[in-house]
Specification:
Two copies of one chain form a homodimer.
Chain A (H helix, E strand, L loop, with lengths): L6 E4 L2 E4 L7 H7 L2 E2 L3 E3 L14 E3 L3 E5 L12 E5 L8 E5 L2 E2 L6 E10 L4 E9 L5 E10 L6 E10 L4 E10 L21 E9 L2 E8 L5 E11 L5 E7 L2 E10 L5 E12 L4 H38 L1 E4 L2 H18 L24 H13 L1 H13 L1 H10 L29 H17 L2 H22 L1 E2 L5 E2 L17 H20 L1 H6 L4 H12 L22 E2 L18 H5 L1 E2 L6 H7 L6 H12 L10 H10 L3 H13 L15 H15 L10 E2 L9 E8 L2 E8 L2 E8 L3 E5 L2 E5 L5 E4 L25
Chain lengths: 784, 784
């Protein structure tokens, strides 16, 4: 857990006031900058000390063999892992020949701040070298939202005592040594020198390196250019070699003088384009960066973020820490998805190598719902990426003996990269999760071109998968056997309720879409019989129910299993997956992450309020939250069934997952889906927002600590603000045509200039449900 | 499939009359010689051509890392694989400087025969060299049953035309190059040069090599000595180096002259003993071999086998091929287990590297039942080996969070080596299978020392495992969830009927044994409460039953699953595991090998005759026999429920599995358990022998083709012969005190000198049950 004094949350700022090398990896992730295309970990400018050096380009991966102790048909043979590409962040400093390194000499002062409105990472260090020379180093780093191929750094150094000889080495470094890693399966594969040099050049203050990844054959270009401002006599010299380009600046600074370097960085990669083409592409981006200049890049960044916050901000009164954490969360979600542009949004965004840089179902289930209502074009891009992988998903389905498309459990490029099929191939729910994201995006945006070009085919190919994966039992029910649901502490069960309900929605959505676009449907070979078949399968979908206990089993037989012995499980034995064998975890009643409870949220239309309350209570007692993808969903359903204080606790956990390093692995990158979950916990949880069937409904209820909650969402080209305080709830349409919404069951029409106000909803006083011993969420106590 | 003309079955002989290089690997396995301690594949004397060179010492293995694409808690990190140790079979021949190699020159004649009574492999070749010189080569090879550390070869060469210059090179060769292997998971790991030289020496016609395996650190010694007889002027010279020792014999032979070489081989290995100790051990064995001489070794071999056949022979009239195949099967089972002496009996015996030389549950379930009634001391040895691995099994149980002992799914030394836990760790039934073998051996031998020293602890520790693995459902039943039964086309199911019934027997046997030996039980920490707890769990054991279909589901929910689409499965898509993903195979009704049907055999006391008939018919339609461990069990239950002709067909398949290479992998070694299954299909199938509760019962019924069946079994120090023909069944006690048996429900007392005869039992005329299309067993048509 990151010690609190290190990171402070301020309005619109995340500030680190002390450099704690123990949590260096965590801060590298949390202060990382990205725009969805380029990601720079918050490594120190001078490169060392470091936990994990990381510079990432979305979609740029290396291949590695997936080994198996015992081979099996259909096992993926090749894995993909994110590449630490050419590092352009490095600016080394020598003061009177002493390398600036915080591990030596004396650190007089250290401060870093991530500015959520300016979109920059600022650093200010005062350091006395082992030989006694004190300097102040200031740097400001940005990864441009406006220019997706561009990053830039302003670096300034000034002596604090007398005259100092200063040398700056601004570099591009390829094939940085990888970190040594442990055995945690959530960490990344280690790649050694994955880049083969193809071209290097320098002239004046400019340099460029082009490499090709050894196995995947992707061409990666990185270029830098500089503006140097220093006192009379300042000299610069550039050089380049296969894995290194360097601008060296030498100056003698008197007290009061400053050496100032602006470093422009441009990146590009391509699987297909030639060396000249990729080289020219980054040179072009660099030219535009120079053209805009440092101040221009700052201004563009600010303008981009102003626009985002105007449409997406969430305001919380009564819990400043939560307020800041939620803005941090939204900022990270934006950084992950803003300019991904037909690439995936990885589980860790572009902040670290965790999970090998793979994208999972949480993109569609947790990240895209947030972006749907805050930055919908990013959703269209992400789903266009999924659509672009359809040929691979069709091939995978065919390999598995199925119809339609089987999307991968984990991937960068589109091929299945899961080396453990019970929690990979068998987790077919990803297909329904993609369909769910399509349906949500389409209802929220009414984008007919997307529907025809992208949405229909995604819905149809996933529906075909379900139709072939399930079977009709002799007694008429449609059953889906031997699959793994969201909960990774169960596997290979029959009729997982979440999976079946999501598949049901998928089948119906495909039928609706095919009927809405008969010409495109005909092109996809759909006839009325197939549509009828989908509807019939959806209608007959088996949803098991345990009459004895009066709850839904997570899957067939689940509620007959032995309950996990929580009482004998020590606190240090969580997460269970690192301390107990899968065989034992799978066969007992213990839940890693919301599964049935996620169905209560996403398919809330399929349950009665009484069922929700009973099911929620039952699964609360079994859910250990060893996944970061649980607290937010528990917050949502807790709030719905009336446990508003519990929802608030879970919201706190989701929002502070990374800032407090609750999963102990934020060093590998932040958890984008959990950060998205903070928004979900607020908007769908405390705000009660649901979008079943395209109807937007709300039921805000505040926990005792909060005095006000307000959030803004974009919906069908409108901008709506929902604000709740102790007395009332106000719906304010800020942009667009009048909008029909539902407040706690009551239909409302909201028009611009005419806010609608309703009295605050009562918060029931219910006994708090029990969690497994030791796994209760921390009670949320606002800190100011 | 091995083409019939190549291998001929003759009374007491297996003869190969043509060298077909296409089936060289198969013949290397089938003609392999072993005694349970040393195994020599039937590689040609001259070493080449070869499919797989193989010389094995039981228990001698090398370690290799087990890789995983995604790691998991409790996954074994280290695998064990059988080592091809120093090859002492090699005798190269040069004729007028031309190496004798059947791929060059002209093979004028080739014949090999495995003599099942003499216990030798004879080879006779006539060959004309490329330069036109014709020679006759005769060799006879034996691996001694009497001296377990000894093998020997008689090698003779004579010119057929005129004078010939002949050189023999008799060798010990270490680190032979491994065969290149494919991707079939049933094949072995490839080891390159696993042996590190520790010592080599030679003097006169004698040489010795000592090596240590690189990772496992086992010391292996091989020594040879020779007797050379040739014409005047014959010269010998020996030499040695780290991986090679060689005796070179040079002679000029005139027509009618013969060069005769007797090669004595001795082997030893140890994990603990020093170089001098192991070296002296093999020198000692070699001294005794020389002392007995070639004729003495032959005589000892004959005497040993005469004793075996007198107690174990099976006679079949009406189907000569089957008669010979069954004797071959018994011979191979004997070769695998005779002198294993506190080592395991591997799945392939010592005939090939298949399955990495591992031992599985089939040792206890298929091989030991045969040896229990034919060579019971081998059973005591094998179970003493299991007992010696208890510390590892206890540690594994502890690692898995269980009580008692969890024996490995596959191993050589005792540690779990399965790299795929759903079909390894989860297949807990191996524990009950071991208990079953213990109970059977104890009832058949009445060996009180074994019971106290070995049996009790094995029964108790496995019972403790079951008690901790299962749980009491709130409604009172004892349930065992998330395990894998014998059928490898299902996994991780609840309440597998086979597993639960075998565990029930295990629990009861442990309770009985603890009560029978209260002092030993007290030493093992057993109190009356624990015994009562075992009995209660056994009593409450859940046995699921499908009331709708009137059959037992293989496991909970099995009969609700979709039926495999057999109609759309092409013949070339079997075995399914190589053409379909596990996820699809596991979730459908398709059975690789008898599972519920095996329960019908081994726990036949738990089913009514009507249940057996209905269950058998149901599973016949689902069982594809992609495992060699199925036909024999189907034969047993088919015979019991009245399908005697079907039983005969399955018996034929089991008996000819290897001789006809029905699984297409006999090149990796013969299937010892399937060969054992041939005996089981005859004795428990056609003979109807059962041993439930220690009561020996029979109900012989002959298929139409057979005119007589007779078999001999050893039981409680008696030797009993059961003979059935079309008219009658005769029980003849050949040795021992009067014995109570049961004939078709009727108790009989048999005494020596007073055979009891009963009329032959009627064979019902029932409609033949259906198998999956294309997977019907071949109709057995006797060939003469």
């Amino acid at each position: 857990m990151i010690v609190h004094p290190v990171i402070e949350l301020e309005p619109w700022r995340l500030r680190e006031t002390r450099l704690d090398l123990e949590v260096l990896g965590q801060s590298e992730s949390i202060f990382a900058l990205a725009n969805g295309h380029i990601g720079l970990r918050a490594n120190l400018d001078e490169g060392e000390p470091q936990a994990i050096l990381g510079t990432y380009l979305n979609g740029c991966y290396e291949l590695h063999p997936l080994p198996y102790a015992e081979a099996g048909y259909g096992y993926p043979e090749s894995g993909q892992t994110v590449v630490n590409v050419t590092d352009g962040k490095i600016i080394r400093l020598l003061v009177d020949d002493e390398p600036f390194d915080v591990r030596y000499g004396t650190l007089l002062g250290h401060e870093r701040e991530l500015d959520l409105r300016a979109g920059v990472l600022r650093r200010r260090v005062e350091w006395r070298s082992p030989t006694g020379q004190a300097v102040r180093v200031s740097s400001t780093r940005l990864v441009s939202f406006a220019q997706r191929a561009v990053a830039a750094i302003l670096y300034e150094v000034e002596p604090l005592d007398g005259s100092a000889s200063v040398v700056l080495q601004s570099e591009l470094v390829a094939n940085e040594p990888p970190p040594s890693r442990g055995r945690d399966p959530r960490q990344a594969v280690t790649l050694n020198a994955p880049l083969r040099s193809e071209w290097f050049t320098h002239r004046d203050a400019h340099a460029l390196l082009v490499h090709v990844t050894r196995e995947s054959g992707l061409r990666v270009a990185a270029a830098m250019d500089h503006l140097v401002q220093g006192p009379e006599g300042t000299e610069s010299r550039s050089e380049s070699e296969p894995d290194l380009a360097r601008l060296t600046v030498a100056a003698v600074l008197e007290r009061g003088q400053c050496l100032r370097l602006v470093k422009f960085l441009a990146y590009g990669w391509s699987a297909q384009r030639s060396l000249p083409a990729v080289r020219d592409q980054v040179e072009g981006a660099l030219a535009m960066a120079r053209h805009r200049g440092w101040e221009g890049l700052l201004a563009d960044q600010r303008a981009y973020l102003d626009g985002f916050w105007r449409r997406a901000d969430v305001e919380i009164e009564g819990d400043p820490e939560l307020q800041h954490a939620v803005r941090f969360a939204l900022f990270q979600v934006l950084q992950a998805g803003a300019r991904a542009e037909r690439r995936a949004i990885p589980a860790k965004g572009l902040t670290g190598p965790g999970y090998d840089g793979h994208t999972f179902w949480d993109m569609e289930t947790f990240v895209l719902p947030v972006l749907t209502y805050t930055a919908p074009t990013a959703v269209a891009d992400a789903l266009r990426w999924r659509h672009s992988t359809l040929p691979m998903a069709r091939e995978r389905a065919q390999q598995l003996g199925l119809e339609g498309a089987a999307f991968p459990w984990r991937t960068i490029h589109g091929e299945e990269c899961s080396g453990y099929w019970p929690a990979g191939t068998a987790a077919f729910h990803i297909n329904a999760d993609i369909a769910d994201a399509v349906v949500r995006y389409q209802r929220a945006t009414e984008d007919p071109e997307f529907e025809r070009e992208i949405g229909l085919e995604l819905l149809v190919e996933t529906a075909r998968l379900w139709r072939s994966l399930g079977h009709r039992h002799e007694e008429g029910e449609f059953e889906i056997d031997g699959v793994t649901g969201p909960d990774e502490y169960s596997a290979l069960a029959d009729n997982n309720v979440y999976t079946n309900l999501m598949a049901q929605q998928n089948l119906r959505a495909a039928a609706d879409a095919a009927e809405a676009h008969p010409d495109r449907a005909a092109e996809l070979g759909i006839d009325p019989e197939e549509i009828e078949d989908w509807r019939a399968a959806a209608e007959a979908m088996r949803i098991p129910y345990d009459e004895r206990l009066g709850v839904h089993p997570q899957a067939e037989g689940f509620t007959r299993h032995e309950r996990w012995d929580f009482e004998r499980t020590r606190p240090d034995q969580y997460p269970l997956l690192l301390h107990f064998p899968y065989f034992d975890i799978y066969r007992k009643q213990v839940v890693k992450q919301a599964d049935l409870v996620l169905a209560l949220h996403l398919r809330g239309d399929a349950f009665t309020p009484e069922q929700k309350a009973r099911d929620f209570a039952y699964y609360e007692a079994l859910t250990v939250r060893d996944s970061s993808l649980s607290a937010c969903t528990q917050a949502v359903v807790a709030a719905e069934v009336g446990h508003v204080e519990l929802a608030y606790d879970y919201l706190g956990e989701a929002a502070l997952m990374d800032l407090h390093d609750l999963e102990h692995n934020v060093a590998d990158g932040v958890h984008i889906a959990s950060l998205a979950g903070a928004w979900i916990a607020i908007v769908a949880g405390l705000g009660g927002m649901r979008d079943h069937g395209g109807e937007l409904s709300f039921a805000p209820r505040l926990p005792a600590a909060l005095t006000r909650l307000a959030f803004r969402i974009t919906f069908q080209r409108r901008l709506l603000e929902v604000a709740a305080d102790r007395e009332q709830v106000t719906y304010r349409l800020l942009e667009g045509e009048p909008l029909r919404i539902v407040h706690d069951g009551e239909p409302l029409l909201v028009t611009t200039g005419a806010p609608v106000t309703r009295p605050a909803l009562p918060v029931p006083d219910l006994p708090r449900p029990a969690q497994p011993p030791g796994r209760e969420p921390a009670r949320r106590v606002p800190r100011t």
